[in-house]
Design a protein that fits this description.
The complex is a heterodimer of chains A (313) and B (294). Chain A is 76% helix and 0% strand. Chain A is globular. Chain B starts with a helix and ends in a 5-residue tail after the last helix. The model of chain B has no long low-confidence stretch (mean pLDDT 87). Classes of the chains: A mainly alpha (313), B mainly alpha (294). Chains A and B meet through helix 1, helix 6, helix 7, helix 11 and helix 12 of A and helix 7, helix 8, helix 11 and helix 13 of B.
Chain lengths: 313, 294
C-alpha cells in the first residue's frame, strides 16, 4: 500500500510541474507588454519601470518562472493589484464560504443521485427508470446560472421565501446562513446528482446480476435487505470514487452560482479578479483549485484501493 | 473493392450495408435521438435563416417598447432597451452553435493527432503528452476557460479559443486510450508486417477504428461548449454587446427579474434545449455505434 501511495506521489511531480508552467504561461498570453497592462490607466514611465522591477519582468522568462515557483513554495502567490493584499490571504478568506456551499451541494447530490440511481436500477425499464433518466438528462443539460435565476424568480421574487442574494456566515446565524445558501447549493448539487444517478444506476445493474446477489435471493432474504446490504454497498465504491472527480464540476459551477447569488466565495473572487484585471489573483485561484483537485484525486484513488480487496497487493 | 461488390449476387449485395448507414438506421430507431435531431434541426434553421425568421432587428433599440410582456407583436416580449426578445434568441443561435462547433473543432484537430501519436508511439512522447493532459484536466473546466478568456481579452473568437483549448485534453486522453487498445489488434500487426509506414498505420488503420468514439465525444463536448460559451458571455467574456448571445441576454435579464421575468425565460430555455439536443444525439450515437448492442 505504501509503495502504491509512494508511486502515485511521484507521479504527481511532473503533473504539478506542468500545472505550474501552464498557469505561469497564462501571463504570457496578455497582449503587449504585461507591465503596461498591469499599470492600467497610469502610463507613468516610473510606475511602469517599478512594476517591471517588482515582477522581475526585465529578467529572462525561465528565470521569471523560477522566481515565481520559489514564491509559490514559500506560500507567496503574489499580491492583488487592486486590494494590495497577498493573494493567499484572499483565497484563504474566501475558501470557507465555498466549502460550505460545496459540502451542502454534495449532500444534496448524494441524496438525490444515489436514491434516484437505485430506484432506476431496481425498477429498470419502468416509468420510474424513465423518470430518473429524464431527470439526469435535465440535470446535465440545464445551465446552472439559468437554474439559479429561475429559482430566485420563484422562491425570492414570487413566493418571497428565501433571500435572493447575499451570504450570512454559519457562525453568525446558522438559520439565516442555511437560507442564504440552500438555493445555490441546490443549483450546484443538481448537475452532480445527475452524474451520480447515472453512475449508481449502471453500477447497481451490474451488481444486481452478480452471483452473490443471486445467492442472497436464493437464501430467501428480503429484497430490501438484498438491495441495501448486498448490492448498494458494493455498487457505492465506484460511485464515490467517480463522485470525487466531480469536485472540479463543483468548483466550476461555484464560479457562476456565486456570481448570481452574490456569495463572496472563491468563484466570486476569480470573476471579480478577471474584471479588475487582477491577474495574480486569477493565477492564484487556478493554482489552488488545480492542486486541490489533484490531491483529492489521489485520496480517491487511495481510498478505492483501500476498500477494494481485489486491488490490494 | 468495387469489383468484388459487383460480383456478389443480388441478395448478398443488398445485405451489405456500410457502417455509417447502419449507425444512422440504428440512431433513427431511438426516440430520444430523433427528438434531439429535430430540435437541433430547428436551431440550425434559426441560425441559417435568422434574417428571414426574426421579425425585428436584434440590435435596434426602441424606447417606446421597453420591457413589454409577451404579446402578438412581440411573442417573447421585449428587453430593457426595447429590443424584441424572440429576434435576439433567433440571432443568438448563431453565436451559440458557432461557438460550440468551432471550439470542439479546435479541440479535435489538436487533441486527436496528439493522442494518436502518444498512444501509438508510446515512450517519451507519450509520457510528455500524458502529463500535460493531466495538468490541464486538473484545472476545473470553466475556471481554466475563464482564466484563458480573461488573459486573451473578451471577444467571441477568444472565448471559442479558450473553450477549444480547455476541451483539447479530453480528446487527447480519449484518442490515446483508444489507440493503445487498437494497436495490439492482429490487423494492425498484419498491416505492419506487409511494410506499411507508421504514419499510414496510424491514419489508415487505427484512426478509422477509433472514429466512432471520437464522434460521440465530440457531440457531447459541443453540448458542454455551448454551456461554456453562454457562461463566458454571461460574465461578459464572450460575445460582446450589442450583438445578441443567449448568455449575455441572461446577464441583463437578471437585473429585471421583478419587472420583466420573460427576459430570463427564453434565452435560458434556448440554451437548455440546444444542449439537451446534443446530449440526446450523443447518447443515441453511443448506442448506435456500439457494435455490441443490437
Amino acid at each position: 500500500m505504501l509503495k502504491f501511495i509512494g508511486k502515485r506521489l511521484l507521479q504527481l511531480i511532473p503533473t504539478l510541474f506542468f500545472v505550474s508552467v501552464l498557469i505561469f504561461s497564462l501571463q504570457q498570453l496578455l497582449p503587449g507588454d504585461p507591465a503596461l497592462v498591469m499599470a492600467g490607466e497610469e502610463r507613468d514611465p516610473q510606475v511602469i519601470e517599478q512594476i517591471r522591477k517588482q515582477y522581475r519582468l526585465d529578467q529572462p522568462l525561465p528565470l521569471q518562472y523560477v522566481y515565481w515557483v520559489k514564491g509559490v513554495f514559500s506560500g507567496n502567490l503574489g499580491e492583488s493589484m487592486r486590494v494590495k493584499e497577498p493573494v493567499l490571504k484572499l483565497i484563504l478568506e474566501k475558501l470557507p464560504v465555498t466549502m460550505q456551499l460545496a459540502s451542502m451541494a454534495i449532500v444534496i447530490a448524494l441524496t438525490i443521485g444515489i436514491s434516484a440511481g437505485v430506484i432506476a436500477a431496481v425498477k429498470k425499464d419502468t416509468v420510474w427508470d424513465y423518470g430518473a433518466n429524464i431527470f439526469a438528462l435535465w440535470g446535465l443539460s440545464t445551465p446552472n446560472f439559468w437554474l439559479g435565476i429561475m429559482l430566485i424568480f420563484l422562491f425570492s421574487v414570487q413566493l418571497g421565501w428565501l433571500p435572493a442574494s447575499g451570504y450570512v456566515r454559519l457562525k453568525d446565524n446558522w438559520e439565516a446562513s442555511l437560507a442564504s445558501t440552500i438555493m445555490p447549493a441546490f443549483v450546484l448539487g443538481n448537475a452532480i446528482a445527475a452524474v451520480l444517478m447515472r453512475h449508481t444506476r449502471s453500477a447497481m445493474l451490474q451488481v444486481l446480476e452478480s452471483d452473490y446477489v443471486r445467492t442472497a435471493r436464493a437464501k430467501g432474504l428480503l429484497e430490501r435487505r438484498i438491495i441495501v446490504k448486498h448490492a448498494l454497498r458494493n455498487a457505492l465504491t465506484p460511485v464515490i470514487t467517480l463522485g470525487a472527480l466531480e469536485f472540479g464540476t463543483l468548483l466550476s459551477g461555484a464560479v457562476l452560482t456565486e456570481q448570481i447569488f452574490t456569495i463572496p466565495g472563491f468563484g466570486k473572487l476569480i470573476v471579480d479578479a478577471v474584471f479588475n484585471r487582477d491577474y495574480a489573483v486569477v493565477q492564484g485561484v487556478v493554482l489552488v483549485t488545480a492542486t486541490m483537485f489533484i490531491v483529492l484525486n489521489l485520496l480517491a484513488d487511495v481510498a478505492y484501493h483501500l476498500v477494494n480487496p481485489r486491488l490490494r497487493p | 473493392m468495387a469489383d468484388t461488390a459487383q460480383a456478389l449476387p443480388l441478395t448478398e449485395r443488398m445485405a451489405v450495408e456500410s457502417p455509417a448507414r447502419r449507425a444512422w438506421r440504428r440512431l433513427l430507431r431511438r426516440k430520444g435521438a430523433v427528438f434531439g435531431l429535430c430540435v437541433l434541426g430547428v436551431f440550425v434553421v434559426f441560425a441559417v435563416l435568422a434574417p428571414l425568421i426574426a421579425p425585428y432587428d436584434p440590435i435596434v433599440q426602441s424606447w417606446s417598447a421597453v420591457r413589454k410582456p409577451p404579446s402578438f407583436l412581440h411573442i417573447f416580449g421585449t428587453d430593457d432597451v426595447g429590443r424584441d426578445v424572440f429576434s435576439r434568441v433567433v440571432y443568438g443561435t448563431r453565436a451559440s452553435l458557432f461557438a460550440g462547433v468551432i471550439s470542439v473543432s479546435i479541440a479535435v484537430s489538436v487533441g486527436v493527432p496528439l493522442g494518436l501519436t502518444a498512444g501509438y508511439r508510446g515512450g517519451l512522447i507519450d509520457a510528455l503528452v500524458s502529463r500535460m493532459t493531466d495538468a490541464m484536466l486538473a484545472c476545473p473546466f470553466i475556471i481554466l476557460a475563464i482564466a484563458l478568456a480573461a488573459f486573451l481579452g473578451p471577444s467571441l473568437g477568444n472565448a471559442m479559443i479558450a473553450i477549444g483549448i480547455t476541451t483539447t485534453p479530453i480528446f487527447v486522453r480519449l484518442t490515446r486510450g483508444q489507440a493503445m487498445q487498437v494497436k495490439v489488434e492482429e490487423y494492425i500487426e498484419a498491416a505492419r508486417a506487409v511494410g506499411n509506414p507508421r504514419w499510414r498505420i496510424a491514419l489508415v488503420h487505427i484512426l478509422p477504428n477509433i472514429f466512432p468514439a471520437i464522434l460521440v465525444q465530440a457531440t457531447l463536448s459541443i453540448a458542454t461548449a455551448i454551456i461554456a460559451e453562454a457562461a463566458l458571455s454571461f460574465l461578459g467574456l464572450g460575445q460582446q454587446p450589442p450583438q445578441p448571445s443567449w448568455g449575455s441576454m441572461l446577464d441583463s435579464a437578471q437585473r429585471f427579474l421583478t419587472t420583466a421575468p420573460w427576459m430570463a425565460v427564453w434565452p435560458g430555455l434556448a440554451i437548455f434545449l440546444s444542449v439537451l439536443s446534443f446530449n440526446l444525439i450523443g447518447d443515441g450515437l453511443r448506442d448506435a455505434l456500439d457494435p455490441r448492442s443490437r
